[in-house]
Amino acid sequence: MATENAEARDRHSKKETFVMDSHVVIASLPVAGADRTVLIEAANAAFERVIERIEPANEQLTRTLWDAESYVDNEITADMLPISRDEAAYLVDVFLVHHVIGLAVTADEEAVESRP
């Protein structure tokens, strides 16, 4: 277990971090095309980091509840526009931890309900 945790930390430290270097602006919803792809990739990468860190009791069930597209659609709202793609990706990343914790809690509740 300790070796697995050390390996996970090592993998995490070697991952590239999101580099803000774009001047692209998101001006309308729903986010589409390349902007959507970038935000979904940022959300999925953040999800993996959060899962590794919180080690949910029902990880597989938590993963089945994860929907990056829905998260992106609900995280970027009309009152935020216009917003740079880099800033949107940053917000998707930093606010995801609370969402994933919520998914893990839901997974735990579903697991308890499904027990005989």
Question: What is the distance, rounded to the nearest whole angstrom, between the alpha carbons of the first and last residues?
Answer: 30 Å
Number of helices: 6
Helix content: 55-70%
Shape: elongated
What order do the SSEs take from the amino end to the carboxyl end, as H and E?
HEHHHEHH
Mean pLDDT: 86
Gyration radius over CA: 16 Å
Strand content: under 5%
Biggest sheet details: 2 strands, antiparallel
How many individual β-strands? 2
| Structural class by sheet pairing and helices | mainly alpha
Description:
The chain has 116 residues and is mainly alpha-helical. Helices cover 68% and strands 3% of the residues. It has a two-stranded antiparallel ribbon. Helix 2 packs across helix 6. The radius of gyration is 16 Å and the shape is elongated. It starts with a helix and ends with a helix. The model is unreliable at 10-19 (pLDDT under 50).
Keywords:
two-stranded antiparallel ribbon; 6 helices
